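Subject: Interface between my chains keeps coming out wrong

I've been trying for a while to get a sensible model of this assembly. When I model each chain on its own everything looks fine, but I need the whole thing in one frame so I can look at the contacts. Pasting all components below, labels as-is. Any help appreciated, I'm running out of ideas.
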Amino acid sequence: MSETEPAVASPPHLDEVEASVERRRAARAARARVSAVLAPTGVVIAVLLLWELGTRAFGVPVFLLPPPTAVVAAMVKHAALLGVASWVTTIEIVLGFGLSIAVGIPLALMIFLWPPFARAVLPLLISSQAMPKVAVAPLLLVWFGFGLAPKVVIAFLIAFFPVVINTAVGLGAIEPEKIYLARSMGLGAWDTFFKIRLPDALPAIFAGLKISITLAVVGAVVGEFVGGDAGLGYLLMVANGSMDTQLLFAGIVGLTILGVALYLLVELAERLAIPRHIISEDKGARGTL
Amino acid sequence: MTQAMAAILPDPSPRPYLDLRGLTKVYASRDGAVRALDQVSVSGARGAFISIVGPSGCGKSTLMMIAAGLMPASSGVVAIDGMQIDRPRTDIGIVFQSPVLLEWRTALGNVMLQAEAKRLDRASAERRARDLLAAVGLAGFEDKYPHELSGGMRQRVSLCRALIHDPPQLLMDEPFGALDALTRDQLVLDLQRLCHERSMSVLFITHSVAEAVFLSDQVIVMTPRPGRIDRLIDIDLPRPRTLAMRESPEFSRYCREILDLFLARGVLREH
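Reply #2:
Try treating it as a single job with all components included. I did that and got this:
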């Protein structure tokens, strides 16, 4: 029965099929890239618009909720003030974060290398985290005065814990075979640490650093709340006291930008320390927000 | 050598290259002591390919770790070429069941780690590394990272890393256990050629009876826990061995002998 030939005239060549599959994949990837930018931007614009129109339509007083345009106006008007305050707070955050690394990583090393030390110190470390830092802040003022020091110390106290824990856990989480391998290759203790164990722990360490930098921001602001005479946290207190809600919002926006910028810097350092192809291979802590 | 020890060895005449005598290993664990090995003695001439087959938990891997000097035996002696071993052996090549590659190094970089540890001349070591990678079919993949390679390719890189310093002995712990059947066959053939070319001694641990018979000069069959030596079987098949040989009656007879031992010990049960 060969009266009706099948409709397939000539089957497409494999090259053509491949080309069309590749075209479709590229189109899908392009769409995903565009929507990755468009979707969040769209949501932000929609929220700002709703906020702006809502406050105007219902006549919300500016001291309760200023519209976004008023906040922007305040930011422009107080640009110099905000700039100086941001600089002060940035110094406190960076110093607190730096201290977290300088103390946290050696501490983690000792915890990892010396189990009795870990047993002795870990309960103290954990209870130091359970203790609310805000409660200790006044005491730090008594000890360190009203200058830079107490803010840096509070930022450090809040921020160093994830550095210690992630570094210690990361160093210990290596597959035992990698260490056996190192020993059978005759790799010395120094080389085993720097060529194998440390690079293996880097993703976990950076996960800790990324949590730490956001906590350092909180710490610096808490320090300024309690006993500051400069900085964005102090600015928030002043604006709040004088019912200048526009300035209050401007300060919050400034802190948010500062926090995100510092986080992105840590992420950039991670990219440089751990090449992209490793991060893309998901392994527990590896990955970005 | 005491008389008791001499009695354990089947033929002590030419000094064996690999000489494990009366190895016993007992692990301390929360649920009481675990007996992993009980009086295991293995000896092999230089260049011999020795396989150890046995059920899971018979202490095969423990035996390899002890032979590599990575783990102390509870009692017994490990001697290589007449020298007693009491620290990790750095002259050997070692391949684990997982490839154990460093994710942040390329295929070539992983092989070169061994050369760096041994402080070999960089240029000539790199030439050797490239030759080895090419010999196992990885030419063109030198600069790929482990996550860009298939499981079989990763294990090949691991094999190259174990061979770059021309070790006198290769220790392998179920190296092909996680691979598909076709990849396994190819790697077994590659391994046979590589070992033949450099007349290397091999201690090969496997679950696969056919793999053991195919590759080995001698197969050591172990009992379930605690691991004891059940039988030593000399494999008298001509080399190089071919895939077709697996269909031969001699090959089947060796496999049958090992399977019969497993049946007799209750490792396998026919219903």
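Reply #3:
Confirming on my end. The longest helix of chain A spans residues 14-57.
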